[in-house]
Design brief:
This protein has about 325 residues and is α/β, with parallel strands linked by helices. It folds into three domains: about 100 residues, ATPase, nucleotide binding domain (Nucleotidyltransferase, domain 5, 2-Layer Sandwich); about 60 residues; about 130 residues, no CATH class. It is about 60% helix and about 10% strand. The longest helix has 30 residues. The N and C termini lie far apart (about 50 Å). The relative contact order is 0.08.
């Protein structure tokens, strides 16, 4: 007779970790610090769970998820929206930390998301640099807009802040480049990706750090992961237009900006875009299709470890 399966949900907050088990309905909490996480790992190793589920919580989940994965336990970090939608669908409307942990355990038991390898410390550091770069660009854009209408007494202060942000952005780009060069695998990926006309260092480094699945999935899966796959909106007699949504929004935003350049300077994508426009497709629809085609090409290039050439792209 096989042993019963155990599913664990962990709700992460700054101060503590609430833990719930199914089907035993045991629950407890520990402090969210080194001592508490160590005790949690030891207790769960004794239980030998089938699956452990946590929500992504702005980085607070990283230490405990890393400790569980290092101990060889099957852990998955899920999108909070998915877990909350599941809780609502099962009639769980109240929200407390213990209830959230129970909901995550139920989610683990019913949905059983597939565990994936967590990024190592080097990948986490590269991802943090990319996040910081986005923050610097957002602040720089806001300050430049503010300068346009700023009264004279504060213009000098804003200009000084803009200069400082520009220096920090240059330094962050240099740190990103050094991080890519430090890994032979990342360096090879970066060189293959940047061999494509229209793909610059920002998109390449974003894909290397935040889309490790690139080159490992098929074209439908990678498009859905980013959120550029056309999804049905049909029900009964209603037939809606296909639309894209979901996926990794920050990666999609960088891909969008690169595609704007690619449809001007990449002969394959330029011809594809012009063909879609010639048959009446709206500019944004044609551009989204080009985003999907560019992503598919890059996915195939990494899968086969082949740099860009037009004949290869035409048959990807």
């Amino acid at each position: 007779m096989s042993e019963p399966q155990v599913f664990v949900g962990i709700d992460v907050s700054k101060a503590q970790l609430d833990v719930a088990l199914r089907p035993t309905e045991d629950h407890w909490h520990v402090s969210n610090d080194e001592v508490g996480i160590l005790g949690l790992v030891e207790r769960l190793q004794a239980v030998q769970p089938t699956l452990i589920v946590l929500e992504a919580t702005g980085g607070l989940e990283v230490p405990v998820a890393g400790a569980l994965a290092e101990a060889g336990l099957p852990v998955v970090v899920v999108n909070p929206r998915h877990a909350r939608d599941f809780a609502k669908a099962t009639g769980r409307l109240a929200k407390t930390d213990p209830l959230d942990a129970q909901g995550l355990a139920h989610f683990a038991e019913a949905v059983r998301p597939t565990p994936r390898p967590l990024p190592d410390a080097q990948a986490q550091a590269l991802s943090a640099l990319l996040t910081r770069r986005r923050q610097l660009v957002q602040m720089l854009t806001a300050e430049r807009r503010r300068l346009q209408t700023a009264p004279q007494p504060i213009r000098a202060d804003i200009q000084a802040h803009i200069a400082w942000l520009e220096r920090r952005l240059v330094r962050t780009d240099a740190d990103l480049a050094a991080g890519i060069r430090s890994s032979p695998l990342w360096r090879t990926k970066d060189e293959i990706l940047q061999s494509t006309p229209g793909v610059g260092p920002v998109l390449s480094r974003t894909l290397v750090a935040e889309l490790p699945e690139l080159g490992l999935l098929n074209r439908q899966e990678i498009a859905a992961l980013i959120g550029v796959a056309p999804l049905n909106r049909d029900s009964g007699t209603v037939r809606g237009k296909r639309a894209v949504w979901g996926g990794r929004a920050h990666v999609r935003a960088v891909l969008y900006m690169s595609t704007l350049a690619a449809v001007r300077h990449n002969s394959v994508l330029k011809a594809f875009y012009e063909r879609l426009r010639a048959v009446g497709k709206a500019p944004k629809v044609a551009l989204t299709a080009c985003m999907r085609k560019l992503l598919t090409i890059l996915n195939a290039m990494l899968k086969h470890q082949t740099p860009w050439h037009e004949n290869y792209a035409n048959h990807s």
